[in-house]
Amino acid sequence: MVHTAGRKVPVVDLGDGTALLTDRYELTMLQAALRGGTAGRRAVFEVFARSLPAGRRYGVVAGTGRLLDAIEAFRFDRAELDFLTANRIVDEPTAQWLEKYRFSGNVWGYSEGECFFPDSPILVVEGTFAEAVLLETVALSILNHDCAIASAASRMTQAAHGRPIIEMGSRRTHERAAVASARAAYIAGFATTSNLEAGRLYGVPTAGTAAHSFTLLHDSERHGFQAQLASLGEDTTLLVDTYDVERAVRTAVELAGPSLGAVRIDSGDLGVMARRVREQLDSLGARDTRIVVTGDLDEFGIAALAAAPVDGYGVGTSLVTGSGAPTASLVYKLVARSDAPDPEAPMRPVAKRSVGKPSRGGRKAAVRRVDGHGTAYAETVTTGEPAPGPRDRVLQVPLVLNGDIVGREPLGTAREHHARALAELPPTALQLSKGDPAVPTEFVDGGPRR
Amino acid sequence: MVHTAGRKVPVVDLGDGTALLTDRYELTMLQAALRGGTAGRRAVFEVFARSLPAGRRYGVVAGTGRLLDAIEAFRFDRAELDFLTANRIVDEPTAQWLEKYRFSGNVWGYSEGECFFPDSPILVVEGTFAEAVLLETVALSILNHDCAIASAASRMTQAAHGRPIIEMGSRRTHERAAVASARAAYIAGFATTSNLEAGRLYGVPTAGTAAHSFTLLHDSERHGFQAQLASLGEDTTLLVDTYDVERAVRTAVELAGPSLGAVRIDSGDLGVMARRVREQLDSLGARDTRIVVTGDLDEFGIAALAAAPVDGYGVGTSLVTGSGAPTASLVYKLVARSDAPDPEAPMRPVAKRSVGKPSRGGRKAAVRRVDGHGTAYAETVTTGEPAPGPRDRVLQVPLVLNGDIVGREPLGTAREHHARALAELPPTALQLSKGDPAVPTEFVDGGPRR
């Protein structure tokens, strides 16, 4: 407790648990289902997007690894239970049930890094209604955020045509969303991140340059450059637009010699500036010194610099805000349930009929149809057993089986998976202009399915 | 460690520390400044926005309380230091310096809940360059996120004209950003949140209804309503659009009687549906049963329902994405420094001259000018001593003094402060249409200032 102006205010303990990252109605629905005898009915929930953000041609699955961590950490501790009962959010029997809660069902999903389209069933959660309904909010939070970021990042990576991109948007989003954003961007092909916690937690390679404040701290730009070079070596990146770019570049090469690593330009017309600076660097003999550009870049800004002598990009705001689509519009819908808690009871497809937002009942599988050239041409979603052709890929993989996490994989695997999945899409997928999904989703009704 | 498919993958420990929620360049600048002898120079950084999101008339300061928690938790533990040195992000002397790090300077800022305008100096951080530069990313992350959410929320609260709004956007944003969003929305006048962790951590009142999955779980809608009423009482909110709204409302009143708390409509034309449902409820004698509407509402959607018989709104996506402005564009700029580490050395204003992004040197104070009717008419930003008139308000308050947190306050205080600050703005501030800032910012040059 901290004493402030006569009032006691508790110091916040964030904690590591994920169980209260949950909407209140999940717990009250649980309570009503426990009381009513339906809590133990078997249930299948699916995560999908009814559409992609306007004009986008594909989405990217990201957050799967974080979701598995969240499911594992989804336990109610004493403080959380006390909060729930003291505030009469749940009754005592429900709190006792929550105290023993541990997800014991199954989760299947698209591999992290996979591409998705409208109605792709990217996650399937199977369990009792009680245990599966509780995961709704945390699953959607993680997937909606991380998929939005990865989907934007993938377009930027494509626009950069192999030039490396540094993710540097931490300051423009929530401090923990920043860490997840760096992770999602790396899956989608970004080279590095400025975010140190993403380096520590997830092993994303970190990178950085210097801020204007460092130059301003010194008695002159020259002093600032000298200090940076002395400490960080000639391979460092010097920021050259604090005062006058031409003078800064001259000073930089004078101090560092031709082995200067890179210069960063953060303002002005980046294409024009990059050409001028390239000429100047070359004329000074610094032919290997790279040029990094930053400053309100998005996928379109990156594409516009394709012909400019740029060696790398730094992207911030547009990445962490999903470049106009900060959430992936994924929903978590009950698609099947049994009439009884008996594990052998048959499953029944269910769907709401709300105006404009109808859902499609039945547990679904998905197959990416791939032609003889190795190019995807359809996303088949079926309530029956998937029937893949020789080149087709069945898209759902097991992530949790009987409560055990089985789908963890290194982040690099997701990154490689994304590169492969993207290479398989038709060329239209890589257009930045607005258009239809690159691959059409087709439904095949296979009748009810266990 | 978890063993997966032959590979060991570490289970992530999120931890509570905030020190690595930081861009790499802050630590490398620190290292260079330590080596170069400039790290101990006194420095003043300011946080401000060069502009508001297009057409917005005011911004709302939020996140201050979270920032104070983050500053307090900003210590480098052994695992973090090991990460930094093992990856050669910093050298050993810098790591030793970081090990002892504790912010010992001063922070001043606008009160949480205060309104702000372009160039309002909403936060001032004073300390050595070394200690103040490290807070850049975490300060901006927290303020950019929370201010963006509170700024959008405040417009929604205004549009709702006193009708309560439930914040229910957790599923559409990063799971921790969701908690901060609920907090920010509450400051800006939302009544409640669905987010349980925001209830536990910050005391935000929680609320909830039921999902379509609860209805679908049951053999009929009637069974679902019965189960909910039996467990949660007649004051609960029944969701009536899973199948047929008219039938659902009839069933709801039949089961609960006229004391049914509320019904929720989540689809269709909400204005039309609300009128129909109101008539039906009234005809069934349920005159006190409230109508809550949800479904892709933003401030404009809320305003459009002003004449509809709606008793409350639920807002999700548009709130947590800042209703088109998911970040507040706040920057953290060095505006003054000394030439020497000596605490008595005079401060010198500094500013970059980057094309299109020049900054204004000197530590600034701000005064909200208020006329005889109690209406604000100008934001005076000065590098001199503020000279408030009798009704004017000096806007910066002490938050941290010599490293001690002095600015903590209960969340309700920030909420009350926002209501007062908003009431003081001219009526144009409350227009939802695009326009200029409601109050102009005027600079008064007061010469250099300690």
UniProtKB/TrEMBL annotation, chains A, B:
Catalyzes the first step in the biosynthesis of NAD from nicotinic acid, the ATP-dependent synthesis of beta-nicotinate D-ribonucleotide from nicotinate and 5-phospho-D-ribose 1-phosphate. The keyword Glycosyltransferase applies. InterPro entries: Aldolase_TIM, NAPRTase_N, Nic_PRibTrfase-Fam, Nic_PRibTrfase_pncB, Nicotinate_pribotase-like_C. Belongs to the NAPRTase family. Residues 350-367 have a biased composition (Basic residues). It comes from Actinomadura graeca. Pathway: Cofactor biosynthesis; NAD(+) biosynthesis; nicotinate D-ribonucleotide from nicotinate: step 1/1. The keyword Cell membrane does not apply. This is Nicotinate phosphoribosyltransferase. Its EC number is 6.3.4.21. Residues 341-392, 428-450 are annotated as: Disordered. Residues 20-144 form the Nicotinate phosphoribosyltransferase N-terminal domain. PANTHER family: NICOTINATE PHOSPHORIBOSYLTRANSFERASE, NICOTINATE PHOSPHORIBOSYLTRANSFERASE PNCB1. Transiently phosphorylated on a His residue during the reaction cycle. Phosphorylation strongly increases the affinity for substrates and increases the rate of nicotinate D-ribonucleotide production. Dephosphorylation regenerates the low-affinity form of the enzyme, leading to product release.
